[in-house]
Amino acid sequence: MSCFHLDDFVAGWIGGASSVVVGHPLDTVKTRLQAGNSYRNTLHCILTIYRKETVAGFFKGMSFPLASITVYNSLVFGFFSNAQRLISKYRHCDEREDCGLLDLALASGLTGFVSVGLGAPVDLVKIRLQMQTQTVVAENLQLAGNPAGGGNLQLRALAVADQRLYRGPLHCVSSILRSEGLQGLYRGAGAMLLRDIPGYTLYFIPYTVLCGLLSPDGRSSAHPASICLAGGLAGSISWVTATPADVLKSRMQADAQLHRKYSGVLHCIRHSYRTEGLQVFFRGAAVNAIRGFPMSATMFLTYELSLKFFRSF
Fold it and tell me: What is the dihedral of CA 28, 34, 35, 37, to 10 degrees?
C-alpha cells in the first residue's frame, strides 16, 4: 500500500478556503498592528480601519489569499499527513501506526520548512496589498541632500492614503519581480522559517494530543465539537508563540520601497528593539490568539470532515 494519499491535499485545500474567509479580517488588523506604528492598540486599529475604509477594508487583499492560501494549506496538510505515514512506515514498518511525539515533531518541523517555499511569496503579496493604503512616514524616506546652509529638512509625513501602488495580486507580483527580482518575492523568508518550523510543531502536536484527550474512548475519528476545540486551542497556542517571528516577517515584507529600513532579520530585530522596546515583538499577540482559534477550528473541522467524506467511498 502506498504511503502517498492525494485526498489529504484536497481536504487541506477545502479547509484552507474556509479558514481564509473566517480569519482574513483579523489578519488585516494583525498585519497593520505589526508592520505600522500609527495605532495605539487593537481596538484603535479596528476603529481606524472601519472609519477610513469601511467594512471592505478588513477584506483588503483577500482575493489572493483565497486563491493561494488554499493551495498553501493543501501543501501543509497534505505534506504533514503523508510525512507521518512515511515516518511510521520506516520506523514501525506500518504506515497506520500512530506517531509518537518525536515523530510528530519531525513531521511538523519538515512541514514548516517545506511550507516557506510557497508561503513566503503568498504572505509577501498579501501584506503588500493590505499595507498599500498606509502613510509613508519620514523614516522611510531618504533625501538626496540637505538644503542650502546645511540645515536639516524636517519631513513629517507624506500622505498617500489613496495612491495605490498595486492594482491587484498579479500586478503586485510583476512589480516586485521587475523592481526586486525573484529574491524580492522571498523577502522575510528567514523570519518565516523562524516562525513556521516551531510554529507548526506547536500546531499539530497540541491538536493531536488534545484530540486524544477529548476522545478517551479511543474512537478513530473525534467528535466534531472535539475537533473544533482541539483545533482552535492549537491555533491559538501556535500563533501566540510564533508572534515575535511573525512581527519580524511582517515588518520585512511590508518594508517601504522608497528606502529599505531593514537589511536583514538581525538588523530588523535590533532596529525594532532599539526604537520600540521589547514589547514590539508581542504586538498583535492578542489578535493572533483570537484569530487563531476560529481559523484553526474551521480549518481542522473542514479538513477532517472532507477526509471522512472522501474515504467513505
Answer: 110
> Could you count the other beta carbons within 10 Å of the beta carbon of residue 309?
12
59 residue type, one letter: F
Distance CA 171, CA 296 (A): 30
Beta carbons of 85 and 146 less than 8 angstroms apart: no
User: Which ranges in the chain belong to alpha helices (H)?
Assistant: 7-35, 42-53, 63-92, 101-131, 169-180, 189-214, 224-241, 243-253, 265-276, 285-310
Kindly report, residue by residue over 35-71, the tens digit of the pLDDT: 766 788 888 888 998 888 888 888 876 777 788 878 9
Number of Cβ atoms within 10 Å of the Cβ of 239 = 26
- Specify whether the CB–CB gap between 269 and 249 falls below 8 A: no
- For the whole model, what pTM was predicted? 0.76
